[in-house]
Amino acid sequence: MEMSWFHSFPSTTFVLVVIVIVLLYLYSTWTFSTFKNMGVRGPTPWPLIGSMLEYRKGIVVKDLEWTKKYGKVCGIYEGRRPMLLVTDPEMCKQICVKHFSSFKNRNTLPLKSKPMSSRLFQLADDRWKVTRNTLTPSFSGSKMRLMSPLISRCADELIKNMEAHCKEGKTVQCKDLFGSYVVDSIASVGFGMDVSSQSQPEHPFVKHANLTAILSLFNPVFAIVFFFPFLLPLLKYFEIQLLPMKTIDYFSQVVGETIKLRNSDKGASQRVDFLQLMINAHEIYDEYVKSKEDDEDHDEGVNRVEFIKDSTHSSVNLSKGLSEDEMLAQSIVFFIAGYETTNATMSFVCYNLATNPETQEKLQKEIDEVMCNYDDVGYEAVSKMKYLDMVVSETLRMFPPPSRFNRECNQDININRINIPKGMTVSVSPYVIHHDPDNYPDPEKFIPERFSKEQKEKRHPYAWIPFGAGPRNCIGMRFALMELKMGLVRVLQKFTFEPCAETEIPPVLGKGIFLTPPNGIKLSVKLRE
């Protein structure tokens, strides 16, 4: 009687089910011999999910374990897709700089719906090169100097907020405190908007700020891309986006209305926010090439002027500037990329200072000495603070904003006796490189002096890559550093951080691509004597 269900089950259906299971198994595992054929070691993958089940412990945790067990170049599988994990500085240089032409594109989510298909992060080949060249002048040193007063006004609000916390004797949640400052800065510098999120937490701009869950490995879109790539046509057909449509619609409205207002305002071209600089992009680009500006904001291993001049021979039209969709896409990315990463880095810096009071005192002394020569905390002032730069650099070493960045191989190539086939994704782990004792003895210790000029010259130049490497490094690096340094200087002029009973030592790190601490960082803050 118990087996009656089995006997009533049609034999043809049973056979079809078995065939489907076998085909699914073969489909999900037929790539699993890739690294064995390449002579590259790595963890044994599971059918369908590859190595991704291991990520539940955290990406950086597994990257450290795999590197220790299999070496600084090992093979893992994201679903059924083979990916070469690189944690060697020289190999990073070979891929990102020396052989850049073979690895000039990123492997991104293959969702082509507008406007996000136009974001710089996703663009490839000529289209990426032209867009990058068009945007680069917006982040030059001269533009940072013009933008610094906008950031300074946002720092004023940050100081008022911290003074209120001090009067009430409260501990501070760094991610809330600095999150508001970063949102205000991005809104002002990116969109020309006065958000004042510290006093208006319900502002729509603020509500769209926390997009951490979207970038989680457990996002259903990620699951479909990695585990069931054959379903991608459905995502494209229904125009499914990685970002919520309400977020895209909000920014689309903001950008569209702002562009209309700017086009009707004859004096708008003199504004220095990021959106206006994109509107003026074609004029800035012409000026940039003519002046052959060669400032410090360079892509390692590539002469920027020659790189730009080479683009003039591209098949893509340089003179058209940016379309509204392109401006919208870059604006959203400017917001997403800048919010979580800068917020987290400022929090980590304050944690390091609170748990290393001698370093905090030394930094405050430098700030006081430098500011004797300046009326305001701006781009010029913070650029004179060498110890501040060491503190920030060491924090970025310990807690790099992205735990990984990737490149896609576009032709068969042999690097360091490893044959990398066309189409393979290569993922570089800044976190593992930064925590390798071969590069940094006692890597878990906070030692800003590692970044003195003498110590930096002793290390491989690609042993510190918190903003990526090569021509596709983070275009907003200079802005991010200015924003966080100006905020930190203003805060440390008046306040001192200390650990409190709620401070997690060491801080708990996020398990995804970004190391944002899930519980935030809580500290005690006191007025300086």
Automatic annotation (TrEMBL):
UniProt xrefs under InterPro entries: Cyt_P450 (IPR001128), Cyt_P450_CS (IPR017972), Cyt_P450_E_grp-I (IPR002401), Cyt_P450_sf (IPR036396), Cytochrome_P450_3A (IPR050705)
Compartmental location: Endoplasmic reticulum membrane
UniProt keyword terms in alphabetical order: Endoplasmic reticulum, Heme, Iron, Membrane, Metal-binding, Monooxygenase, Oxidoreductase, Transmembrane, Transmembrane helix
Keyword Endoplasmic reticulum: yes
Cross-referenced Gene3D superfamilies: Cytochrome P450
Entry keyword Membrane: yes
A GO CC annotation given for this chain: endoplasmic reticulum membrane
Function: Cytochromes P450 are a group of heme-thiolate monooxygenases. They oxidize a variety of structurally unrelated compounds, including steroids, fatty acids, and xenobiotics.
Protein name, per record: Cytochrome P450 3A24-like protein 139
